[in-house]
Amino acid sequence: MDHNINTKTEEETITSTSIHQESKLLGSNKSSYKQILAIGGGKGGVGKTLVTANFAITLARAGAKVTLVDLDLGGANLHTCLGVEMSSRTLSDVFSSDIENIEDLCAPTIVPNLQLISGAHDSLNAANLPHAQKQKLIQRLQQLKSDYVILDLGAGTSFNTLDFFIAADVGILVVLPEPTSIENAYRFIKSAFYRKLKNIEHQLDARELVDKIVEKKEELGIKTPADLLSAIENESSDLGGKVRLAMNEMNLKLVVNQTRTGTDAEIGFGVKNVCKKYFGINVDYLGNLEYDSAVWQSVRRRKPLAVEFPTNPLVATMQKMVGHIVAEQAEKIKNEKSYE
Amino acid sequence: MSNTRKQSLYEILDVSFNASPDTIRHAYIKAKNAYNRDSLAAYSLYSAEESKDILSEIEEAYTILSDVDSRKKYDDSHGIISSDSYNSSYRSSSVTFSKNEAREEITSASTEYQSSSTTSNAPTATAGNMSHIDRILQTQESKSANPVMKNYLKIESQKNDPEMEERINKCENVSGGFLRSVREYKNVTLDQMIDILKISKNYLTALEEDQVEKLPANVFVRGFVIQYARALKLNHEKVSSSYMEFLKNKRPSL
User: Fold this and answer.
1) Residue A46 lies in a domain
2) Is A269 near chain B, with CB under 8 Å?
3) Residues B228, B182: one domain?
4) Side by side, which strands form the sheet with A283-290?
5) How many domains does chain B have?
6) For A13, nearest residue in chain B (alpha carbons)
7) Which chain A positions have a beta carbon within 8 Å of B4's beta carbon?
8) Which of A75, B32, B104, B246 is 20 to 30 A from B40 in CA distance terms?
């Protein structure tokens, strides 16, 4: 049940205002302008589904039309925590059958304004999609009649996961304050960096230049992805600037989950700092989520935290994070409009 | 690392040229924590020795930037006007338009700042952290999206030259001369620009007149051009990369 629908918290009001502002700016273009948020992080069990479900609920309650897509191909379970029966139609139908309209795959959830496309639970092959099918799926997702499409990605750094992450407007990384989780997150960022570089090399016709630089790696003293970006800039400021811009278009955000001490929460700033230096890209630290036993209780009850415990402080924290993202996107739209 | 771009002290601490002493101190603490021996953030990407080198760079940057005199000396030698004068003139220029106007022009960047800060009293550790984020956002972004800049935008809308608008839109072949023509087109005087950017007149004139030999090292010029573009509400990424290409051709040695 949606306990909280009529009494909006301050954070929710802010998100609503920003969404309203966005709609106003977009006017009749609104239907073609949607934001895709991808949630990844490299490691399993770090809280990707917690963040995905509750971010989606926050946006839906603030008045946006939201579609959640369970892209944990091979290990889909988002339906469980949104009170949706595993639907007879899943993502595999996009590839295998003659689905004309992707909206047909959407199932309503217990939260108004929020619908779900279930993951491909039945097809092991789905976890390893050929490129053409991925492109098809991304195109279909862009056709959805939603203001926000939120992708819950699987663990690991397969090309599948990376390609959906790169295709999104905002890439959210969830980590735990543990060495293995941080290491995996870096591995994930590194893989996303090179995957993205490969994509844009092609788009910007920069392959020759990048190859030339990579060949002289030792000579040029390139040790990190950030060094590589600088070296491209040194060769051609114009191209280098474009590559750097494209890299930052991944719009990376970081959430540190299950923190128990202030030091745990501080790790986010460290990761942000190190990413800037090592990868040469900006990571925006959204904040931390404190360890709270209410989270596993809500998982047991198969209800999202925001539905089962709407007054839990973590819900307010996540609302604030969403407010930050929405306000930033509204600003971006505003700037784009002013360039037009 | 001969090829990689040398960082300014401000870049090492990841703060803007006009960062307050408090912001610098916070940035220093965060940077130090990141590369600390016990830190989870750095060990898997940097060896102990590399972290040690980075830490000494951070120490050096902080030693200079935390001391008023040495910061001023550093700023002066790189054409940056020191932060104290920034604060006072910033205040004076922001009172040139009415409060109502300012309220109307509040961008979502500042709404965002407000949004997080309204909750900073919440009794969670997160609230404290979010306020750090606010601070970073405020220093890095909100100032450029500030009413001061908005004031110029109003002036901008009084003129309409399609050819100029087209050039502004494309931001191609950007030179100092081009930047000056955009500034003049938008009715911003050189003095106003100096006031906003806090860059010495000599450097700003050299920039606009393409006297590239008089400009400081590229890393600083890039910073100036980004700020210049932001103040005129140009696409700063496009402008800076195009300008740096121009500069590199004119002055290949640096």
Assistant:
1) yes
2) yes
3) yes
4) A107-108, A114-117, A66-71, A148-153, A35-40, A170-175, A252-259, A283-290
5) 3
6) B115
7) 221-222, 226-227, 230-231
8) A75
pLDDT band at B144; cut points 50, 70, 90: very low
Per-residue tokens: A307:
């539905």
The CATH number of residue B182's host domain is 1.10.260.40
- Report how many domains make up chain A: 1
Chains A, B: CB pairs < 8 Å? 165
- Residue-wise pLDDT for A60-117, tens only, equals 998 899 999 988 766 667 787 787 776 667 777 777 666 778 888 898 998 999 999 8
Q: In this structure, are residues A88 and A172 in contact, taking their beta carbons and an 8 Å threshold?
A: no
Sole residue written with tokens 């306020």 = B131
Q: How far apart are the first and last CA of chain A?
A: 44
Find which of A210, A229, A277, A283 to mutate to test the B interface (most B CBs within 10 Å of its CB): A277
Query: pLDDT band at residue A34, thresholds of 50, 70 and 90?
Result: confident
The span from the CA of A60 to the CA of A67, in Å, is: 9
Tell me which DSSP letter residue B91 carries: H
User: Does residue B37 sit in the same domain as residue B108?
Assistant: no
Measure the CA–CA gap between B111 and B103, rounded to whole angstroms. Answer: 11
Q: What CATH number corresponds to the domain at position A224?
A: 3.40.50.300
- The whole domain housing B193 covers 150-250
